[in-house]
Amino acid sequence: MTMTTTAPYRAVLRCIQGCTGAHSLLEPIYRCPNCGDLLEVSHDLDALRDRSAGSWMRLFDERYKRTTWPYGSSVWGKKEWVCPGVDADNIVSMDEGGTNLFWAERFGRELGVSDLWVKLCGNSHTGSFKDLGMTVLVSLVRQMMRQGVAIRAVACASTGDTSASLAAYAAAGGIPAIVILPRGKVSTAQLVQPLSNGATVLALDTDFDGCMAIVKRLSTEEGIYLANSMNSIRLEGQKTVGIEIVQQFDWEVPDVIIIPGGNLGNVSALGAGFDMMEALGVTARRPRIVVAQAAAANPLYRAYRNDWRFEPIKAATTQASAIQIGNPVSIEKAIRTLRRYDGIVEQATEDELADASARADRTGMYNCPHTGVALAVLAKLRARGEIASTERVVVISTANGLKFTDFKLDYHRAAADLRPRLANLPVELPDDYDSVLRAVARATGSS
Hints:
The chain is α/β, with parallel strands linked by helices. It has helices at residues 45-48, 53-63, 79-82, 105-111, 130-146, 161-173, 188-196, 208-218, 232-238, 240-248, 265-279, 299-305, 331-340, 350-361, 369-383, 405-412, 433-444; strands at residues 11-15, 39-43, 101-103, 115-120, 153-157, 177-182, 200-204, 224-226, 256-260, 288-294, 344-348, 392-397. The chain contains 17 helices and 12 strands.
């Protein structure tokens, strides 16, 4: 059954610098025509106040993971707060959101954090948080096309996860997809996803920043619609991560949110979600936001250490390939959010992120390298006392560890110049029961 709402809710695009003018979400526009800065989605909060905070919470709880189309998706279950103008018949959804808020009790105990949770955003259709934003973007593209806007294809630059998500949602919506990847710098699992979904995959001899420069030029060509996070439409879906976390805690706000940071769209997206809850009376306080960067690709960390003065860098190779970005598109939005949210930025080395991922895996998780960055940063901040033992901490896990098998194998094989503290390889034995028994005895510490 399909449900629609009739309340006059409205959202438009506005310049982040406050330039006058508003633009329709159905207009292919990514930057302010006056100053050239990024745009953001602005909701009519006065109209949304026609419901009380309690009424919104009850509505979202009633819809959560139900079957009424399109509200079974945790993104579209909050449709009025995300993209009220899209018709339900144009929505391309694969049951996004509703992912496990994993109580990392054992790992937290090892770190001295009694209330640690990991938001497993990788438990989704294509295995990453990008699905949350892509459902909104592709749905709007389908509505634009049905209203006569000439769109030939959607295109993105990617380090792997964006391309997988775009390809899947575009395929479901019957829209051609073009993805531009840095050749040889994404995992096999990530590469095969857009290929399998029929996207045109262009592998360039450059890094992500080079791919991004190409796709930005490509998006100026007639009929090519940009699907990267400089398009603020995607961030509307991603902001529901923060809203859903609060919902899963029975509408209580955690103390600290730790986010792996690359192109930095997620930082402002989660901030927007918390801003909206506060503005509509659902919450009365804010979490502290921490951004975790790989030391090899740390432009935001450098800006944080330099009184927020940003300079792009050439990102070095890191196992956390999805955040190997030296000139993040959403840098200004991220800095603005971190200033409002008492933000911290910290970094992790290659050994630190790999060991943190492996250590967490030993407690029942199976982490992508980007989550490893966040977990390593958590350990550092806890050791320095910047996160208290009693604070409720949520780490955003951005992708499924199964997409990074090579990262796991390299760690346990001590490849890539790593010095693994927790390497674990198969014990190769003859077909002999006594040999097996001796191995079991060694493993269990028995005589």
